[in-house]
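USER:
Try writing one entry.

ASSISTANT:
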Amino acid sequence: MLKDGFDASWFEKTVVGAGGDVSSKLDLLAEEIFVKYLSSFGQIESEESGIIGEGSHKIIIDPIDGSANALSLFPFYGTSVAKVNAQGILDSAIVCNLANGDIFFKSDIFEIQQGKLFSSIFHTPYTVPNSEIGLFEKAYANPALVASLNKEKLKFRSPGAIALSLAYARSVNYVLFVGAFRIYDFAAGLALCKGLEVIVEEDYVIVSKDKDIAYKIEHLIAKIKLQ
């Protein structure tokens, strides 16, 4: 759909979606494609339209993760899908970076794998042992924490697509999100963080391959809350 470039109509805004953001026509078109191909596998819960259909399994989708990036032609946007089985266990997840073709997935059969869209070659995700940056989603809304991270020399970027940032957790120093927690944003991304240090609270999420880094950031958040 995207390989031939963006259609002008995709930039148009429509109505407020189930996740609370205003949906673009790009979001709705992506959702329509997912519903067409995934509705036979179970009930779909989408950021745009909420609950769609029925079934004992639930498919949680964010049709376009990082919509604002996509609609600004900033190349960090993707899509995420997670499946919850009849027992309520999240057993499969996939996150794809639509800008560069990176794809990450896991299932009840396969451990976490990384590859390229339309390729049949996959491998365990790349890990960078001495990562120089973290990813801080919604940094713009948390200036006190930004200052604290800077003081601790915990460099970061704020790319604006949380599921995608979580998919890259092994290659960065940490992934941090502070704000309202929405299932569409996190289901698939967190499923890909198995084996890492993961801290999930009501108003923040921290993921790192370094336990000390994760708890240092949590300590910084706690200090700010006490101020």
The first strand starts at residue 13 and ends at 16. Residues 211-226 form the longest helix (16 residues).
